[in-house]
Protein: Zinc-ribbon domain-containing protein
Organism: Bacillus paralicheniformis
Amino acid sequence: MDNCKTCDEFYYNESAKSWLYKVENGHWDYYKDGFDYIEIEVKYCFKCGRKLGEHRIKW
């Protein structure tokens, strides 16, 4: 599969059946002793435009 670097940062959530992009929101979580993250549901790569879940075909 021919992905851009941004495509490799998305991951598939089996329980929600959706592709997610994890973004650090800058809020410190004292319980986890680290930054909080927001998961954004995406259908297309915002950099190369590839629809997630489909493979690119090279001719």
